[in-house]
Amino acid sequence: MPDFLVLLFSDVVALTIGIFFGKMIFQKSFDKKEAEAQTRAAEIIRNAEISAENIKKDRILEAKEKYLKLKSEFEEDANKKRNILQSNEQKLKQREQNISQLLEQNKRRENELETLKNTLTQQTEVATKRREEAEKMLSQQVTQLEKIANLTAEEAREQLVDALRAEAESKAASHIKSVMEESRLTATKEAKKIVIETIQRTAAEHAIENCVSVFNIENDDIKGKIIGREGRNIRALEAATGVEIIVDDTPEAIVISGFDPVRREIARLSLHRLVQDGRIHPARIEEVVAKTRKNIEDEIVEIGERTVIDLGIHGLHPELVKMIGRMRFRSSYGQNLLQHSREVAKLCATMAAELGLNAKLAKRAGLLHDIGKVWHEESEMPHALLGMELAKKYKEHPEVCNAIGAHHDEIEKTSIISPIIQVCDAISGSRPGARREMMESYIKRLRDLENLATAFDGVEKCYAIQAGREIRVIVDAENVTDEKASLLSFDISQKIEKEMQYPGQIKITVIREMRSVAYAR
């Protein structure tokens, strides 16, 4: 046998033996691992069974605890409901007892009412019989009286009513006269005292406002610069300011004419700046006028703020403060509006303090009473009503609003401050020299006064005297008695108050003159 075959055979045998032994070793290792795995699985199963048993016990305990808790809650709720039911049963029993008592009381009252009803029926029957007897007796008496007096009952009644009416009118006239005289002796004295003290404590200057302003210049050469070539400068100035510039032969003076004081002031200040600067031409004029107008607006606000600070008035809306400043450049019958409003405010505060009223509220209403005159928009409303609406718009006190709207009797007075504002406005406007009135309107007012009084029955003549502060009425002595004369003066005063506008007060004097004339022949 060759050697390589021997070697090959030996290698095959060795390999087979190795495989056999390797298989045996692997089988033993596998069996060992399988046994370990089974042991571990059994241990896991045992642990799981123990854990499951513990969980089961925990769940049973939790269920028991929850059951006990629910049971206690149920029993507690049941006890509460049981208590409520018992309480309701007691209340029902009590109500049943009350109802039974009420029924018994109602039964007793029904019996009492039945008794009263029977009594009233009897009394009614007796009263009816007595009334019938009285009517019968009255009818018999009336018939007898008609036979005696030869008058029917209706005629006698009319005569009695006429006599009583005449007597009542006579007594009423004399009573009115005595009451008026007594009130004059007491109220007039005290009122005059308060008004005089108020006026004395509030001294104010009066300056009549004109519709022109005079601008003084150093020499007449400046007039030519102001006029400009072919008058272009003066036309530009008039167009920018809205006033009329009058350059005439008046030495060293130029007249600025316009109804609006603000425009006149803007024109005057603009001329002053242009003359100082020396450059006078249309473009420069427009620039200076615009700056001056802005400065005037700032000055208006400053005047308003200074006014309210001087008067001690706080909390006014900025727009109202601005309108107060604008009053400085307005006038009424020649009287400066701001000066007039300041004076009225001081008069109102003093008079309200004398009467024990709210002086601060009265002062506020007095300052704002003519605020409707400076509203920048055109309006057909009277200035008093417009001022009231503005005061309401800017959240003023209702008493202040009513005082503003009622100071010319456009609306009804609902506050005690309102007549004080009206009186103080008349005091300020009726002072000598305070206002200037056009001759035509003055004459018309006097004529209207005379015509109003002449329209009454029994008036023969009427004369307005003392610049319209007094009217003297001459009546027919045959048709107007003394009592009717007193009533006539009162009626004329009431009609003047309702139909006319006037400053201060008007005295009505009724004159009844009886003349007896005879001739010796």
Automatic annotation (TrEMBL):
Any one annotated GO CC term: plasma membrane
Cited InterPro entries: HD/PDEase_dom, HD_domain, HDIG_dom, KH_dom, KH_dom_type_1, KH_dom_type_1_sf, Ribonuclease_Y, RNase_Y_N
One GO process term, biological-process aspect: mRNA catabolic process
EC number(s) recorded for this UniProt protein: 3.1.-.-
Annotated coiled-coil segments of the chain: 75-137
UniProt keyword terms in alphabetical order: Cell membrane, Coiled coil, Endonuclease, Hydrolase, Membrane, Nuclease, RNA-binding, Transmembrane, Transmembrane helix
Subcellular location field: Cell membrane
Pfam families: HD, KH_1, RNase_Y_N
Transmembrane segments: 6-26
Every HD domain range: 337-430
MF term (GO), any: RNA binding
Record function comment: Endoribonuclease that initiates mRNA decay.
NCBIfam families: HDIG (TIGR00277), RNase_Y (TIGR03319)
Family indicated by similarity: Belongs to the RNase Y family.
Protein name per its UniProtKB record: Ribonuclease Y
Organism the protein comes from: Arundinibacter roseus
